[in-house]
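Dear Dr. K.,

Following up on our conversation at the group meeting, I've run the structure prediction for Tryptophan--tRNA ligase from Halohasta litorea. I'm pasting the input sequence below exactly as I used it, so you can double-check it against your construct before we proceed with anything downstream. Let me know if the numbering doesn't match what you have in your notebook.
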Amino acid sequence: MTDDDTPRTDDGGTGRGAEPLADGGVDETTIDPWGSSTVADYRKLFEEFGIEEFDEILPNVPNPHYLMRRGVIFGHRDYGPVAEALANDEPAAVLSGFMPTGDPHIGHKLVFDEIIWHQQQGADAYGLIADLEAHSARGMSWDEIDEHAESYLLSLLALGFDAEEGTLYRQSQNRELQDLAFELGSKARFAEFASIYGFDGETNVGHMQSVATQMADMLYPQLVDEPKPTVIPVGPDQDPHVRLARDLSVRMRFFKVTEAYASFETDAAEGELIRQAYDALAADLDDDEMVRCEDAADWLDDHEVDAELTAACASAVDKLSEAGMEPVRPRVRFFHRHGPDEAFEAMIESINGEKRVYEGHIDAFGMDLDEAEELAREVEVDNGGYGFIQPSSIYHRFMTGLTGGKMSSSIPASHISLLDDPEEGYDKVKSATTGGRETAELQRELGGEADDCPVYELYAYLLANDDDGLAEEVYEECVGGERLCGDCKEQAAVLMKEFLKNHQEKREEAKELLDDLDIDLDSNRRGPGGSE
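The predicted structure tokens came back this morning:
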């Protein structure tokens, strides 16, 4: 799926750049899952949207893919649980998908490769065709969708997706997915859709339904066997979908599990202040003594807090004072958000050791937060719930078009289709814009600008494949003035021609495999395009 709640990539869902992120800039960063926007300053994504830098987690990734090593995959949301599962041979999943609006091109190959790499590392792999979204959001006819769906699947198989171990599906043919989308839709609100996507009174209902379907796509792997860490590889334009899917996965949970220190409810700021008071007071007590709420209130009254916490401190003091001699003790709290009463009763029975049962929540003592989260998930699944783990995501850079600017399927010269004749691919690379200087003399003197060169990106993203040495050689020779653009493009053009020839031969071999799979490429559905 895209960087949405649905894994999929459309024309712009590729990555950009293999060198470290530059600080530079634009005044505004726009993220639009269905638009044609690019991200001019990736660092703004860290600052404005909370995307984390992938370099920070890279040491924890076993056998990292070259797209990770070269900085093409530049960001993530909560990828740690997936990396940990892969490192420890524990259950994990990867899911992404493709909106069949045209032929697959070299940008889509990034997502194909990310799915396949995770599958090779032991994750359950899912690839989907976002045909409901293509019909409702892009106005594609079903005949067009059927034609392009086959092409995407053939390329995915040709590049190494193991169909026997993995799962391929179309949104329109997956009833279990549609049932989940219905349930998720009951937890979403139109106001959210309006805020996140700009939906208004002119937006067709089918488009809104397709968003719920994308949310279901991202959670679908957790319907199989058990809840598990799941990663959605996408371009950063799809991040709004990921954020909404993560929110909805939490809303579907029967229980909210938090840390607490007293029987009354607190917000995050109040809870942190009470924790500080407890830690300070408990350090001076004997084992048989307890911190009391009124003691914690006095401690907070006697200590200064940051100005922005003044209101929270006053509120915490009031609550502690009202509780009086009640002990302040660390605990985990199981708050029953929704779900059957039987689930709440089952949770009470499942908690071993000391516990306190209140109206709507249970406090358990001597249990850590991770243990409590796992117990809540088990009880939920045993009582008819989903037990979802929030999906994770990784983000790749947008690829520059061969003519400069954005790579787009609507500009044939800007991209290379995986279906292009190998000779045509050769010619497109030979005609590509470069980061070279005006003359060979200046190139030798000043060096080329590899960081702004679409041809260098071809090496880093595709042509060098797993050979880091080749990618580094091209870069260093370019910026050092040893490599001239003509020779560089010739080498790249030959490699592109060989890649396309090899890939298309494998596509032909994959046709027989695709025929044997349980996926219908003739939808037999009625209806015109559904664009707004």
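Two things stood out to me. The two ends are 21 Å apart (CA to CA). The first strand starts at residue 52 and ends at 53.

Best regards,
J.T.
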